[in-house]
Amino acid sequence: MTDRRLDPTRLTRRGALAGLAGALVLTGSGVARAEGTMAEIKRRGLIVATEDDFRPFEFVKDGEPAGFDNDLVAILKKEAGFPVNQQILPWTGILAGVATGKYDCAITAAIITKERSQSLDFTSPIADATHYYVKRKSDASIRGIKDLSGKTVGVQAGSALLARLPELKAMLEKDGGSLGKVVEYTSYPEAYQDLALGRTDCVVNTIINLKALVTEKPKVFEVGQPVSGKSFPAWAVKKGNTELLAFLNEFIARQKANGTFYALQRKYFGEEFRDLPVTWNPEF
Fold it and tell me: To which H or E segment does residue 272 belong?
């Protein structure tokens, strides 16, 4: 059973943050169609979509964009040689916006999946995104994956983590258990709030995001075990936009070569991922 907990008050709060995001567009406008060759992009400026609240990759702090991806966007603005127009948005419209040509690329931690690869091309992975569960630290009823049987699980709507819940379902069924109710949220902060209040029993997210959460609130939350196979996030462009994909991959490779990429990983993730694959063909 899936509960799409997307009530109007939450959407209003997200809309308010999106309004702030609109004020943070640094140059130009994202109204024009973003489809085009690199020559066209250089003439009109690159339209980049980033998320508004996905720590530690992207978030807004003191009215300014912050996080791993936003720091790299700031570097890209300096190095590109042409305008880079940033749109800071709620997650739910970003990938569809890239796939339909509203934005040139999504510089966000978008997990590479088979389904997404039908309409998008992805850069080299930027981190590890193996999925784990997080629970309330005070909840002694959950000590391992088998204890998640029948529990209420929170996950972000439209996310790759939602699409890979069948892996957790299979793990539970192997021990005679079953996947409980799934609650979908517009954002992870909302999911964590419900978890802290006892409205859900666990939340599934990537290990990096959950480590950041537990570091921030160690008395409230505790990371559990992995509930998926290997998974990697990357930046996305519209399917077939090979020129832009090559441009972004060259930028990533350059930041790795000069050490900036790994310094930012240490800053925001607490560790480096030096053995990431150059390309990734997902099973799911």
Answer: none
